[in-house]
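Progress note, sequence design subtask.
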């Protein structure tokens, strides 16, 4: 077993690290403060093929795997987590279309989404369907040769910059759950915005609540098999971008803290000389490495078609909580200025805090992890 990236993976990492250093880092804090969507940066990532990284080359992607996605998302999130979330959500939608859509849908949507020329958003959660997605109330009724959708979606990340929302709606009775949910490509302009939230973090990307009232879509707006959309999306592993985003924040928090504690002096010493600080730098590094290894393991297993029932929730729980810890430590070790917008520690903490909730709260992932453990899933050496 070799714990190292291949040459091409390292080249990809270096390319995106360089891009993040020159294009994202200098503007990340301002974009966050202004709650401004990083449109230009996302367009450039689209031109470079980064936003379509794991999509097939035939559809404008780079044909890379989830390991490469984890590597890239870490770099982007170290620059700005919200921007990385915009990439992850759009790619997740494009992946569902590519995996389960018709040839026509693939040709129509995937190349433009790969290039971030068309932006996809995910309409799955609702006000009363958060962790319990199958409690969704949005319905799609058959009418003539199309479908009529009614309901609402909450937390639609990328809206209002999105062109299309992959909208999950019930097309069958609850007795058939989970085989009673279908997915539809609904143009963003068909939704009315109910409200934008004032969020703690991830400010560059909005995630409003939106309503659909009697919205008619044609038959070919349905992606995948009728009634099977919820089950099908469970087999798409682009969700590994969530722990990868956490690794990015945890690493950025560590790097900033090493730099600050080396330069800041108190009691005639750099504060980084004090053992009480040094040990914590070591612990922060430990969290970065364990989070990255777990995330890459989950991505690698998914790439090899192996089960991730244990590996994915473990990576999600560990990395997201490590990011919160590291951001919190970064703030503490920056002292008073860490509590201000002079430094990025406060942004890391605000952004990291989202990740134990989004992509499913960690409590739900703890349940999944326990299920896998009790079922005897070992997943360590395969
Ligand atoms: C900024 C942001 C962006 C998002 N983007 C999107 C998006 O683009 N598309 C989309 O569809 N969704 C999105 N989401 C939704 C996100 O996935 C949900 O918020 C999440 O799944 C949790 O749902 P909820 O907020 O309703 O929490 P709830 O389900 O109400 O849970 C509240 C809390 O209860 C506890 N809890 C819940 N279930 C259990 C359990 N089984 N055992 C123990 N404790 C439990 C946890 O502490 C949890 O945090 C986003 C959310 C946010 C905040």
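Output:
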């Amino acid at each position: 077993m070799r714990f190292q990236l291949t040459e091409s993976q390292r080249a990809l990492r270096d390319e995106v690290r360089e891009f993040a250093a020159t294009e994202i880092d200098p503007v990340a804090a301002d974009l966050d403060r202004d709650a401004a969507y990083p449109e230009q940066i996302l367009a450039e990532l689209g031109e470079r093929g980064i936003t379509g990284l794991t999509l097939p080359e035939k559809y404008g992607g780079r044909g890379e795997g989830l390991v490469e996605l984890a590597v890239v998302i870490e770099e982007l999130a170290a620059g700005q987590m919200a921007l990385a979330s915009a990439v992850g959500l759009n790619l997740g939608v494009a992946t569902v279309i590519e995996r389960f859509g018709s040839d026509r849908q693939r040709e129509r949507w995937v190349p433009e989404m790969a290039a971030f020329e068309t932006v996809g958003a995910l309409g799955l959660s609702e006000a009363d369907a958060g962790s319990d997605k199958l409690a969704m109330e949005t319905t799609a009724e058959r009418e003539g040769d199309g479908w009529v959708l009614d309901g609402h979606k909450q937390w639609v990340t990328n809206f209002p910059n999105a062109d299309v929302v992959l909208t999950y709606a019930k097309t069958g009775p609850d007795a058939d759950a989970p085989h009673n949910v279908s997915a539809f490509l609904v143009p963003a302009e068909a939704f009315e915005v109910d409200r934008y939230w004032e969020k703690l973090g991830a400010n560059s990307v909005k995630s409003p609540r939106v309503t659909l009232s009697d919205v008619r879509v044609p038959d070919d707006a349905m992606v995948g098999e009728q009634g099977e959309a919820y089950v099908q999306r469970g087999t798409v592993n682009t969700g590994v971008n969530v722990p990868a985003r956490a690794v990015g924040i945890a690493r950025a928090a560590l790097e900033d803290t090493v730099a600050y504690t080396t330069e800041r002096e108190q009691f005639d010493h750099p504060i980084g000389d004090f053992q009480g600080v040094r040990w914590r730098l070591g612990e922060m590094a430990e969290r970065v490495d364990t989070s990255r290894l777990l995330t890459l393991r989950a991505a690698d297993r998914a790439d090899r078609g192996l089960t991730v029932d244990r590996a994915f929730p473990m990576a999600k729980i560990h990395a997201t909580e490590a990011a919160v810890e590291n951001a919190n430590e970064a703030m503490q070790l920056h002292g008073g200025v860490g509590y201000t917008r002079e430094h990025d520690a406060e942004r890391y903490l605000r952004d990291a805090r989202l990740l134990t909730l989004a992509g499913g709260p960690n409590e739900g992932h703890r349940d999944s992890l326990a299920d896998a453990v009790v079922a005897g899933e070992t997943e360590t050496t395969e």
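The pocket of flavin-adenine dinucleotide is lined by residues 89, 122, 124-125, 130-131, 155-157, 199, 202, 207, 354, 357-358, 360-361, 363-364, 367 (CB under 6 Å). Work on this subtask will continue into the next period as scheduled.
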